[in-house]
Structures are given as structure tokens and as C-alpha cells.
Design a protein that fits this description.
By secondary structure, the protein is an alpha/beta fold. The chain is built from 13 helices and twelve strands. Strand 5, helix 6 and strand 6 form a beta-alpha-beta unit.
């Protein structure tokens, strides 16, 4: 018997993106032909080192930095840890033992703050309102002469809002604090320039813009002192020990080049599709609302609340209908906890548990959006009717 399989529409690009064909091809060639250890002085090692240098230049160009300021890592989580722990450990013996972040940061930042708090560091989490954007005055009030580092994400992974990082960095540096931004959800999607932002450290991850999983980078402004996260060899200018993941780094470099060449046009296309999706959902499904400010946002992301439905049930029902979405951060999925981002924004408990993130990408088309808008109202109605039936029983 033939089994019907729905057309699959992928709308979870903030969790991960499919690697671009050019990335896969270049990585395969690197695995085959550039297998040498980049620390070796012979031909095979130097061929691998040249590949790393090319990728380093591409990543530096993506964020407006210098290649010497790029350190390759295993991804966004390591980059965030490296930035925060590296600064903390470098300054631990001094008087600055205060860290500031926002309440809507990724767990890689929030849990690192918790770990450092257990070691005696004072930490402050800045509040946000229902716009999802940090008020500069909140940072001014939180800063002290003891503040070592401020870490504020550039774009939020759940709602897509863009923080006023340049203004926040100016405020932090006026009090002598360093500034780190987690740009995992913005790098490769919108223009990111470390000099214009005025930051000291910036994290990014390859698999958020069509590169491979397991590789990322930390940009470190020249002159910023960090404690290396691992002891060992002198790789990455003695900033990260261990033999480099040549093929993965090559893939990151190709992804960075592709992002730079396509970013403006692709951003306009995705924002138009996202707006089409939002307007369609709000018009066709009663009891829906957009979470967070609609501008400024990264072009591919929307987070929508559906009254009288549990997000987990809606996610599963949509997947059965062939539409892949998310309830929020992929790093938190399966916890059954309400979104810490929506909770921090001050939404009531039911809204923190009835919201779905749609994050679009390169393969999505108008036909995909039309299909989602065709399927979604019926799925929502069915789930709400089930809820009413259970309530009556």
C-alpha cells in the first residue's frame, strides 16, 4: 500500500540551516586534498594552513574585522563561553568582578553567568519590556565601576529583535567595561560591522548561515586580554589549543563569502515572505499576535502567539502536516519549560507556552507560505476543538 507523505516545508532556520551546495563541495575537497595538519611545516601542512588563512579572511570580511582578530571555535556556545569566561578569568585578580547581560540572552550566556556567579562574580540581568528590546537607560543604571563585561546579543534567536548594540557598547565603554555581542542570529543575515558596533568581542556560528555544524568563530578586538579556554599547543595564536577542524573552517569561510554576496537581496526577499506569513496568519487565524517589536528585526524571523493552544501540540500537528517550525531555541527544546525570552518580556504564563517561531531561509518560496497559510487555520481549529472537548469532559 502506498503511504501519503506530505510535502516538507522547513521553517526552522534559526535552529540550523542546510549547508549550501558550495559549502559541501568545498568541504569534501578539503577532506580529500587538504588533510595535512596546519601546524606542520611541510607542503601538506602548509596547504591546510593556506586554507585556514583564506577562511579566516572571509570571516573577518563578514564582520568588518582583521583576519588576525578571528579565532575559530566549535560554534556559538564555545564562542560565548570563550568571550565571557576569558574576560572574567583574565580580570579575576582585579577589582572588576561584575558582569551584565540581558534576561533574554541565549542559554550559552545565561548559564555561563550562573557558573561564574557560583565562583563569586556579581551578575546583573537587564530587563526588557514586551518589545523585547533593552533600554539604554537600564544599562546606565546597572553599570558600576566594578563592571568588567557587558554581553548583549545582537539579534534574539526566538523573536528576532535587534538590540541597539552600538549605543549600549558606547555606554558600557564610557564606564571602562568591555562589550561582547552574541551575533549568532545576525551574522550572515544582516550587515554586521564590529567597528560600527563598537564592540570588543563578537560570536558567530557557521550553521546559522548555511555552513557546517560544529564550527564558529570569536572576533576579538586587538588588545583585548582573554584567558585561553584550553591549555595545549599554540594554535590560533595561542588563543585556542588543539588541531584545527580544517574542513569545517573551510566550510565556514565559503558560507561567509556566500552570505556577503547575497545578504542584501536575500534579506529583502525573506522579509517580504515573513510579512506575507504574518499578515496571513493574523488575518486567517483568530486569537493570534506577534511577539516582540516588528522593527528592527532580522528579516527571516517571526514569533506568533496562538490563544488556547499549547505550542508543543501545534508544533507536532504542523510537523504531521509537513511544516517544520519551533517553539523557540533549539537548545531548549524538549524541556517543556515556558520560553524564558517571552517570560522575561512580561507576557502571562499562557502566552509563554502558546507561541511558535517561524524562521525562513534560502529555499523558502511564496508557494511555501501559501501552503502554510492553507494548512494552519484547519490545524489550529482542530486543536482548539479538542481543547474544548477535553474541557467539557
Amino acid at each position: 500500500m502506498l503511504q501519503w507523505v506530505p510535502v516538507r516545508i522547513y521553517l526552522d532556520h534559526n535552529a540550523t540551516t542546510p549547508p549550501a551546495a558550495e559549502v559541501v563541495d568545498r568541504m569534501a575537497a578539503a577532506l580529500r586534498d587538504q588533510f595535512g595538519n596546519p601546524s606542520s611545516v611541510h607542503h601538506f601542512g602548509q596547504t591546510a594552513k593556506a586554507a585556514l588563512d583564506e577562511a579566516r579572511s572571509a570571516v573577518a570580511a563578514l564582520v568588518g574585522g582583521d583576519p588576525s582578530e578571528i579565532v575559530f571555535t566549535s560554534g556559538g556556545t564555545e564562542s560565548d563561553n570563550f568571550a565571557i569566561r576569558g574576560v572574567a578569568e583574565a580580570l579575576e585578580a582585579g577589582n572588576r568582578r561584575h558582569l551584565i547581560a540581558t534576561s533574554i540572552e541565549h542559554e550559552a550566556v545565561l548559564n555561563t553567568f550562573k557558573a561564574l556567579a557560583r565562583r563569586g562574580w556579581k551578575t546583573t540581568l537587564l530587563p526588557v519590556d514586551q518589545s523585547g528590546i533593552v533600554a539604554p537607560d537600564a544599562l546606565r543604571e546597572a553599570l558600576t565601576d566594578d563592571t568588567a563585561l557587558v554581553s548583549v546579543m545582537h539579534a534574539n534567536n526566538e523573536i528576532g529583535t535587534i538590540q541597539p548594540v552600538a549605543e549600549l557598547a558606547r555606554i558600557a565603554k564610557s564606564r571602562g567595561a568591555l562589550f561582547h555581542t552574541d551575533a549568532v542570529q545576525s551574522a550572515g543575515k544582516i550587515a554586521v560591522d564590529v567597528k560600527a558596533l563598537g564592540v570588543d568581542l563578537l560570536s558567530l556560528s557557521a550553521h546559522k548561515f548555511y555552513g557546517p555544524k560544529g564550527v564558529g568563530a570569536l572576533w576579538i578586538r586587538r588588545g583585548v586580554r582573554l584567558q585561553a579556554p584550553m591549555t595545549g599547543g599554540k594554535q590560533e595564536r595561542s588563543r585556542r589549543a588543539g588541531t584545527e577542524n580544517v574542513a569545517g573552517i573551510v566550510g565556514l569561510g565559503v558560507a561567509a563569502q556566500l552570505a556577503r554576496s547575497k545578504m542584501a537581496v536575500e534579506g529583502d526577499r525573506l522579509s517580504a515572505l515573513r510579512d506575507q506569513l504574518e499578515e496571513g496568519v493574523l488575518a486567517r487565524v483568530m486569537g493570534t499576535a506577534i511577539n516582540g517589536a516588528r522593527s528592527p528585526r532580522v528579516p527571516n524571523t517571526t514569533n506568533i502567539s496562538f490563544d488556547r493552544i499549547e505550542a508543543e501540540s501545534l508544533l507536532i500537528a504542523l510537523d504531521l502536516a509537513g511544516v517544520a517550525v519551533s517553539t523557540g531555541s533549539a537548545c531548549s527544546s524538549g524541556t517543556l519549560e515556558p520560553s524564558h525570552v517571552l517570560k522575561a518580556m512580561g507576557f502571562p504564563a499562557h502566552r509563554t507556552q502558546n507561541s511558535i517561531r517561524f524562521s525562513l531561509g534560502a529555499a523558502n518560496t511564496e508557494a511555501d507560505i501559501d501552503k502554510v497559510l492553507e494548512v494552519l487555520p484547519g490545524v489550529v481549529d482542530k486543536l482548539r476543538s479538542l481543547t474544548r472537548t477535553v474541557a467539557r469532559v
